[in-house]
Amino acid sequence: MGGDTFDYGRGHDLGSSVISTLALGAYRNSRRSGRDLLAAAASIDESIESQIGRGRFATGQMASLDTTSGALRVLNAGHPPPLLIRPGQVTTMSCPPRPPFGLAHLVPGGRDDVVEEQLQPGDGVLLYTDGVIEARTPGGEDFGAERLEELLSTASAASTGSAEALRQVANAVVDHHAVHSPTTQRCFSSSGGPATESRDPSRPASP
């Protein structure tokens, strides 16, 4: 089963919607309790396993940004690694995935899955689901990570804002795929002051 979620539950069927909503609820509770990313991930793991059972899971990413220092901490649970966007350059962040949420028991003993990146003024970061790069033409050609990076590089060179860049990516994915495919994208940028965020405009607003 598959389903995407960003601050709301959504899935291809009732089962995937339940899992994504349960994971999101555990995350929100952890965030409001002041837990760090590792503790939040452990809470999501425990919620899925105790409420749904072993073998069920959700993929996802969590990030924490210090808007004063620019320090970005990311935990990746089975998604493509985020892309770091700098003027004239797009690189893949070194963010190896841990097991999807709910499958932490597959790696007993625990591990530190959080990576840190120091952002600079003008940097942008794109977090996205596999639905972006796996969108296919009727002939079976994937959209692909290389095409995504080229789009972002072009937008960066043209000094395109994060909201417009995200809109261009969303339109390119839809045009490539020809039909709807579940994708979630989240982009934020740093201008030297508070971080600004842009969301895929095709998505419902967060509650």
Offer a concise description of the structure:
This protein is α+β, with helices and mostly antiparallel strands and 207 residues long.
Word description of this protein:
- 32% of the residues lie in helices and 19% in strands.
- It is an alpha+beta fold.
- It has a single domain (14-199), classed as 4-Layer Sandwich (Phosphatase 2c, domain 1).
- The strands form 2 sheets. The protein has a 5-stranded antiparallel beta sheet.
- A hairpin with a 5-residue loop joins strand 1 and strand 2 (71-77).
- The chain is globular, with a radius of gyration of 17 Å.
CATH fold naming: Phosphatase 2c, domain 1
Shape: globular
Element order: H for helix, E for strand: HHEEEEEEHHHEE
Instruction: Look at the structure and name the CATH superfamily.
Output: PPM-type phosphatase domain
Radius of gyration, CA atoms, in whole angstroms: 17 Å
| Strand order within the widest beta sheet | 4-3-6-7-8
Number of helices: 5
How is this fold's topology laid out?
Blueprint: H1 14-32, H2 37-51, E1 60-65, E2 71-77, E3 83-86, E4 89-92, E5 114-118, E6 124-128, H3 130-133, H4 145-157, H5 162-177, E7 185-189, E8 196-199
Antiparallel strand pairs: 1-2, 2-5, 3-4, 3-6, 6-7, 7-8
Helix pairs in contact: 1-2
Salient structural properties:
207 residues; alpha+beta; Phosphatase 2c, domain 1; 5-stranded antiparallel beta sheet; 19% strand
